[in-house]
Structures are given as structure tokens and as C-alpha cells.
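Support request from a user on the community tier.

User writes: "When I paste my C-alpha cells into the form, the page sometimes reloads and wipes my input. The last time it worked, I copied everything first. Here is what I submitted, just in case something in the input itself triggers the reload:"
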């Protein structure tokens, strides 16, 4: 609730910003349009403008999580691989970079160079794993964050060295900063004539992404998705950043995974690409996943192989759900089929309520989601 600004509230209730400010001013509160509103202020405003405001606790949606995911005692925690998202301006080379990394690092024997679309994949560098989420688009990224499903440990912002900072680069910076994930800048297309990495550094610094060699705290790695130059450096930088973060999970716990992509596939039905955040997901597990539930029929890794178990930060396509989950949904392994079904029903009911309240009232939850 503290995340709602005056102008957003005004927009939401269809009143001029000045009216909202006036009401608060008359009560002795000086605010400007960008100030955040507290719960009390929202209540006062709701009464004044005769709108009904419901407080929906977003964590309700995940109550199955609270019941099932116990606080981990430190002794069970083990190091886990970092999960990376690549963002950047259109045509700056996100897809090319993901392909270059995958082609350079994925185990051989695969159809060389042909990259069919996959939601996420894991590569190895110096015997350490790194998981990449295929660029989900900024909207999907924020949707995941809003659902409390922080799927990314480190954000890589790609900037073409011959084009510099562009509107979607700035968007990417905003999303990365909001997610609090450390940023690494990949200065791509270094092979091109007119590549100017210093210009990129200067422009990024203007947006508070300051290069380490300029006294800042962000690593800028020159790369070329075309020639493969710098890819090794980029992966090493990811590992270094991850090491400092001390990312851990408990492989013994009940599985908790986040959906990064979903679809209906011929012969497989509803499927979701997940990344395990804690525990180990196994074939045969009963799972709830948002409104969906089911029994894990098979797990297919990023190389199309059937696997039996999926550990922390690893990724696979889960087959066996009764309906398509949404990106950002949390999948939890449960004791029984009955439980999974019940939690899925509760979740569906919650969403139905939320929709109803959204159509008739202004919900705080929705206001927050606007940011
Ligand atoms: P969108 O998904 O449309 O936002 O683009 P993207 O960021 O995924 O860029 P993509 O990988 O599709 O690359 C855009 C164009 O730049 C393609 O024509 C690539 O071949 C080219 N390109 C990408 N990386 C490099 C590079 O390192 N060097 C050169 N010369 N061209 C590159
Ligand atoms: Mg692309």
C-alpha cells in the first residue's frame, strides 16, 4: 500500500490530481503528485471520494507457499547456480547473445547451430552452472516480480556498441534497479565498425549505471554475439558476481519452482517451463501451480532429454498439469493429489474474488501493480 503515488490514485479513481491534493491539504497534509500515500491517507481519500478500496493481501494468493515452504535452517543450504535474465533495446542482440552462449557452452551432439525456441537453459562454465531465462520481455519480467516471484539473480543489460543507450535500454535499467538484482552490462556488436564502448559507458553512467573502471560498481563486458568475442569473459563475470551473492538453496526441501513460460503442446497438453528455486522437483510429484495442479508426468530438459529430478536453479519443461499456468506462478510439490487440488481451487477462488472486486472497486493490490 505504501507503494501508491498520489497521481496514480487520482488516475485510478478518475479524479483530477489537484482534487486529491486539495483534500489532503485541507486536512493539513502537504503532498505533491509523486508522493506515496499511506494506508490512512488512502482510507481518508476513499471516504472523501466515495470509492470503495479493498485491501487484498497479495501473499494470500500464495498461502500454499507459506504452509509448505518452511524456513530453511542454515545447515541444509547448499550453493546453487545463478539465474540470469538478459534485457535490452530491440535489435541490440539479446537473442543472438543467448544463442551464442548456448551454442558455445551446451554439451555437443546437439543439432549444431539450430536453436529451437526454449524458455530457459543451463550452461556450464568452469564446472559451474549458469541458468539463462530467454528474454521474457519487460512486461513478463515485471509481472513475475509483482507476483513476488523474483526469478532472476542477475540482470544482463545488452547495449549495442554502435547504437548506444536507447529507450528500452532505459526501461531495462529501471526494471533491473527495481528488482534489486545486480547488473552486468554486455556491450555487444564490438565487431562492428563504429563500435564505441566508451560512449555506451558515458550514456549508462548518466542513468546511474556506473562502470567499475570509472569508480562505479557495474561491470561492462565488451562482447560480440557474432564472433563470440568476450562471451567467456561475460560468463566469468557472472560467476564472480554470483559468488559474492552467496546464492543458496536446500536440495532436500519440497520443491518450489517458478514458471517462466507456458503453453499447450501437441501430445503433451498444458506445459510450463520452470526454474526450481528451492528443493528438488521429481517425476511423480503432486504439484499445485497457480490455478493449475497435477502430477509431474515428465520433465524435459533444455536439450530435449527426459530427466527424473530437477535441482535448485535448474530448468525443465513440466508435463502433467491440468491447465496452463501463468508466467510467474509458483509451483509447489505437495504431499498428496488431494492437497494439490484443494490449493489450486483456493487459488482459483482467490483470483475470481480479485477479479470481481477489481470490476466494482479499486483494489490496493491493483494500484500497486500499476507501478
Ligand atoms: P529483439 O528480440 O527484436 O528485441 O532483438 P534482439 O535484441 O534479440 O536482437 P537480435 O539478436 O535479433 O539481433 C538483431 C540484429 O543484430 C540481427 O541482425 C543480428 O544478426 C545482429 N547482431 C546481433 N549481435 C551482433 C553482433 O555481435 N555483431 C553484429 N555484427 N551483429 C549482431
Ligand atoms: Mg530477440
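"...and here is what came back when it finally went through:"
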Amino acid at each position: 500500500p505504501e507503494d501508491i503515488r498520489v497521481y496514480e490514485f487520482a488516475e485510478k479513481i478518475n479524479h483530477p490530481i489537484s482534487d486529491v491534493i486539495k483534500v489532503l491539504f485541507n486536512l493539513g497534509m502537504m503532498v505533491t503528485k509523486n508522493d506515496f500515500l499511506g494506508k490512512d491517507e488512502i482510507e481518508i481519500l476513499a471516504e472523501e471520494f466515495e470509492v470503495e478500496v479493498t485491501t487484498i493481501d497479495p501473499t494470500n494468493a500464495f498461502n500454499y507457499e507459506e504452509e509448505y515452504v518452511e524456513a530453511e535452517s542454515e545447515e541444509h543450504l547448499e550453493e546453487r547456480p545463478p539465474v540470469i535474465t538478459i534485457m535490452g533495446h530491440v535489435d541490440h542482440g539479446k537473442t543472438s547473445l543467448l544463442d551464442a552462449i548456448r551454442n558455445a557452452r551446451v554439451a555437443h551432439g546437439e543439432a549444431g547451430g539450430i536453436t529451437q525456441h526454449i524458455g530457459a537453459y543451463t550452461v556450464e562454465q568452469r564446472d559451474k552452472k549458469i541458468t539463462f531465462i530467454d528474454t521474457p520481455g519487460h512486461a513478463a519480467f515485471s509481472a513475475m516480480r509483482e507476483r513476488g516471484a523474483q526469478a532472476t539473480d542477475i540482470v544482463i543489460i545488452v547495449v549495442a556498441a554502435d547504437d548506444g543507450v536507447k529507450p528500452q535500454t532505459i526501461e531495462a535499467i529501471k526494471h533491473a534497479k527495481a528488482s534489486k538484482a545486480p547488473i552486468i552490462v554486455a556491450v555487444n556488436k564490438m565487431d562492428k565498425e563504429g563500435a564505441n564502448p566508451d560512449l555506451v559507458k558515458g550514456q549508462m553512467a548518466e542513468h546511474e549505471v556506473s562502470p567499475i573502471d570509472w569508480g562505479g560498481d557495474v561491470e561492462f563486458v565488451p562482447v560480440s554475439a557474432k564472433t563470440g568475442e568476450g562471451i567467456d569473459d561475460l560468463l566469468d563475470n557472472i560467476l564472480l558476481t554470483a559468488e559474492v551473492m552467496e546464492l543458496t538453496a536446500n536440495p532436500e526441501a519440497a520443491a518450489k519452482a517458478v514458471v517462466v513460460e507456458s503453453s499447450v503442446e501437441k501430445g503433451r497438453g498444458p506445459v510450463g517451463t520452470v526454474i526450481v528455486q528451492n528443493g528438488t522437483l521429481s517425476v511423480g510429484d503432486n504439484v499445485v501451480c497457480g490455478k493449475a495442479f497435477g502430477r509431474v508426468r515428465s520433465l524435459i530438459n533444455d536439450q530435449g532429454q527426459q530427466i527424473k529430478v530437477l535441482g535448485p536453479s535448474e530448468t525443465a519443461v513440466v508435463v502433467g498439469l491440468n491447465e496452463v499456468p501463468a508466467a510467474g506462478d509458483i509451483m509447489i510439490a505437495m504431499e498428496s493429489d488431494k492437497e494439490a487440488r484443494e490449493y489450486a481451487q483456493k487459488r482459483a477462488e482467490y483470483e475470481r474474488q480479485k477479479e470481481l472486486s477489481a470490476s466494482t472497486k479499486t483494489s490496493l493490490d491493483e494500484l500497486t501493480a500499476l507501478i
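Agent notes: The reload is a front-end session timeout and is unrelated to the input. The pocket of magnesium ion (ligand 2) is lined by residues 94-95, 135 (CB under 6 Å). The mean pLDDT is 84. Escalated to web team.
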